[in-house]
Amino acid sequence: MDEIPWFEYDEDDLDGAQRAFVDVLAERAGSWLVNPLDTVVLPSAHTSDGQLIVYLDIGDPQRNRGVLTVGAHFDGSVVRGGELHKQDFTIQQTASEFAFEAAGSPTDLANRTAEWFEAVLARPLVRCEWHHEGRMYAVRYEYADTGQGLSEGFETPLAPDALGKRLAADGVMRGRGRINRAGLGQPDVIARIRGARPDQ
């Protein structure tokens, strides 16, 4: 069975500079703890800004859930990276913590982009869970070093009645949705997803 390459592409879809950029990234990605299927190349002919886009989906394999998509737009001499919108793959300006920009040769930019991906992957990502009667009613993915939330979910029908009523009184929608972690108290479970441990 053939191995799936990291950042797989069809040679006819990329020009020489783009191939040089992606080939370096693919070589570096071989040492990352990611599934090759989570590394993606979008040729410039298929993007809204006419630039090559490479991205990485960071997920929680235990819950089979996507957490964060980070990627870079490459125009041949400049690369810009950050958190990407999950549908149109534009860089999210509000997520400045992930912002990255550099200029140079394709090989240099690929190495700098790989270093940036590696730094994002090294961050201590955890899953916080809140349970009631053996079922999870709230989940939040966050960086353990800063507490910055990446994604979260809340299911009111599974939450304790008193908590659901208190949150509803505070203006939190009933049903599924997002919620402020502070209103939940301490999580019942904190599971390390990837990256360095918070105490290291």
Could you walk me through the main structural features you see in this protein, from its secondary elements to its overall organization?
- With 200 residues, the protein is of the alpha+beta class.
- Helices cover 20% and strands 32% of the residues.
- It is built from 3 helices and 10 strands; from the N terminus they run αβββββαβββαββ.
- The strands form 2 sheets. The chain has a 5-stranded antiparallel sheet with strand order 1-2-3-4-5, covered by helices on one side. Strands 9-8-7-6-10 form a 5-stranded antiparallel sheet, with no helix packed on it.
- A hairpin with a 2-residue loop joins strand 6 and strand 7 (135-143).
- The model has no long low-confidence stretch (mean pLDDT 88).
- Quick check: average pLDDT? 88
Strand order of the largest sheet: 1-2-3-4-5
Q: Compute the gyration radius: what is it?
A: 19 Å
For the largest beta-sheet, the strand count, sense and barrel status come to: 5 strands, antiparallel
Q: Which word captures the global form?
A: elongated
Residue share in helix: 10-25%
User: Helical stretch count?
Assistant: 3
- The succession of helices and strands, N to C, reads HEEEEEHEEEHEE
Distance between the termini: 39 Å
* Protein structure class: alpha+beta
User: Uncertain spans, ≥5 residues at pLDDT below 50?
Assistant: none
Content of β-strand = 25-35%
Q: How many β-strands, per DSSP?
A: 10
